[in-house]
Amino acid sequence: MFLVCGEALFDVFTAEVVEQAAFEVPLSARVGGSPLNVAVGLARLGCPVGMLTGLSTDFLGERLLASLQSEGVNTELIVRKQAPTTLGFVQQDAAGVPSYAFYGNGAADRLLTLDDIRVDLEGTAVIHFGSYSIVAQPTADSYFALAQQHSGKRLLSLDPNVRLNVEPRIAVWRARIAELMPLVDVVKVSDEDLHLLYPDQQPEAIIEDWLKQGPQLIALTRGSKGASLWSHQAKVDIPGRSVKVIDTVGAGDTFQASLLDAVVELTHSTDSTAVWSEQLNSDTLFKIGHTAVIAAAITCSRRGANLPTRAEVQAAL
């Protein structure tokens, strides 16, 4: 089973065409949060997946819980908190590129304690960590303790998904990512994230350095330009897929879900003497990356983080 660790919230979208000075701004809400999207994406690919997060006992928390359950995400490890639900307001520009404003100080997804992560993970093969939950305390340190406990025992995955409007101190992000890097096996990062984290360094140099620290597979997403994948054996570039973009919300999470699905398939396909990472040659990397790019393009073609099913991805391939 996959276990996804990170925030679950509501994305609140502004109407597409509203004058800046308007007194009334119509809003529509959709369940979201990068880790929640990854969990839903894995479920839609037919993967057994659960979430370990904090959810409010308010009516929004109830809706989040019900939506996860309706998607087939296991919610047994979710911890209910008498605290608010995070709201992430989203406004898109003419190209569909989102900007965010988060309202979540003291919210349930930021309040996980060490006691909350003392859980039985028997049968869990992959643990994924992502987004502002890796830096928002006390949840951040609780997740870090979980990563320390399970590194080397299960596959660990990381998507920093930097949100400076949640934690504006870039040094906090850099420090936690540096601590996590030796513990994780798979990393997905966007070119935007790397520019925020290390504006004076080339992405390739950063990733080459990360590869020396522990990860076996690193994916760099470049928006419409596609993606690049690195292993210790090879590096490949994947072209973008032309699509009419409605918006890009959830595209990176779709790529992440597809990537993790492929990694687990790889572990199942190896014989008893092989190690999954030894199979990451250029052909395998291209296949993994191409599938993930196609999946992300499907999400970009529809409103909100509406991630594709396995059947939809296979049809697009």
Automatic annotation (TrEMBL):
Keywords, comma-separated and alphabetical: ATP-binding, Kinase, Nucleotide-binding, Transferase
Keyword Signal applies: no
GO molecular function annotation: ATP binding; kinase activity
Stretches assigned to the Carbohydrate kinase PfkB domain: 28-308
InterPro entries, per the entry: PfkB_Carbo_kinase, PfkB_dom, Ribo/fructo_kinase, Ribokinase-like
Family: Belongs to the carbohydrate kinase PfkB family.
Protein known as: Fructokinase
Originating species: Thiothrix eikelboomii
